């Protein structure tokens, strides 16, 4: 096993001493010795960076689970981890230097921040939602984004089940009263949930899982979604949100943050709800107009609510949460029968451990081998055989976590070229590679960004550098990487 080499200092050694970097305890990825110009922001100074695993700098924010950190440090990457998110100016300062950033739902990677991320190759969202990242800007600048699409779905669904009963029985209020020494035994407006109708808005991973659990407890389930989706059990899709609101005793929201879902529940929609119905929001804070919810609760139209997500959330634990953060005039905390939780829908040991593994594995596969299979903003490509690799992760999870591991099936050098999806690029790409032994090649596009990978056999480092330099001159180029 050779020590990783800094190619910018000793490029001639890259091929002769093929890298087999310290084997990760969790993966069998082909570790790269590689070079590329991760500085993909057009117009910015070029920067040659070696990508030996120990040179990869990773910034993890928002308390990413140890399972993920272990995988990343196991690869030899430099990992800096923070418990909370960072103020934007600090984030900008730090993101300039790193190749990889791992975040959860709070850190906003908007255009302003990403523009500064001159070395950034990839973003790992250690959560489901990716609304906090400007995905298009990232793709256009060669930054792949990965998430964990369903590892915390069950946790959210279980929380919602707990909240349905808690609201129906006013458990929050009774508990608060007891904490203050007040015995208040009431049955007025406390209900069983058996036979009641649950209206699910957004029948995706979470909504459909919830549907099954709710039916098991004797509820009738209706759902509204913008696409026609197969009903699980006896659930029924309704054609409009209004239909759902007029029939549901409990309304629960499971849509992503999108322009179309902003204030999806506002004064008009609260009016359309049944008298004394309940609202649960564990999706995104922007989906509910909270002042309108407060009015609906004060008028008695809405008998209770559970809110897990807010338009503006504190940066980390210990930070004060109050109205001024969101600019509401009325204090949501003064209402009866309202459960307020600090965005904990996906916060279980099981979910966080599974997310840590899934996203860290995706990052390793991308960094080391350019595999974009589960990316949310890049064409999905892989040229390596993937194997299900359970034992590697037994250490971090005894649950159902399996991991797709890329095997080192080739001794070829790999060229990764992210480019604008315009006519003629593949011809130019193949002209550049033409005189070499191209073992395998794959390409795909997603909108106006395209991705091509090629395995090239029996090439000298000097040839790879020439290929690299030639690709860099193409006007369509977004990012070139050479992994070997
Ligand atoms: N509170 C928490 O800790 C967590 C919150 N979330 C949030 O929950 C959201 C939903 O998660 P998943 O179920 O995994 O997403 P998903 O993508 O599997 O399902 C979302 C569903 O919403 C539907 N949809 C989109 N726009 C809609 C609209 N305007 N009207 C009606 N339906 C619409 C989609 O067609 C899809 O079926 C995530 O995007 C995330 O923001 C996710 C995990 C944890
Ligand atoms: O997975 C999601 O989208 C969530 O909202 C959970 O976010 P978190 O990882 O708890 O910040």
Automatic annotation (TrEMBL):
Record CDD domains: PGDH_3 (cd12176)
Keyword Lipid metabolism listed: no
Stretches the record annotates as Disordered: 1-42
Catalytic activity: (2R)-3-phosphoglycerate + NAD(+) = 3-phosphooxypyruvate + NADH + H(+)
Domain spans labelled ACT: 414-484
MF GO annotations: (S)-2-hydroxyglutarate dehydrogenase activity; NAD binding; phosphoglycerate dehydrogenase activity
Statement: the UniProt record of this protein carries the keyword Amino-acid biosynthesis: yes
UniProt keyword terms in alphabetical order: Amino-acid biosynthesis, NAD, Oxidoreductase, Serine biosynthesis
Record field: compositional bias (Low complexity): 20-34
Pathway: Amino-acid biosynthesis; L-serine biosynthesis; L-serine from 3-phospho-D-glycerate: step 1/3
Enzyme Commission code: 1.1.1.95
Biological processes, Gene Ontology terms: L-serine biosynthetic process
Family: Belongs to the D-isomer specific 2-hydroxyacid dehydrogenase family.
Name recorded for this polypeptide: phosphoglycerate dehydrogenase
Organism: Anthostomella pinea
Phylogenetic lineage: Eukaryota, Fungi, Dikarya, Ascomycota, Pezizomycotina
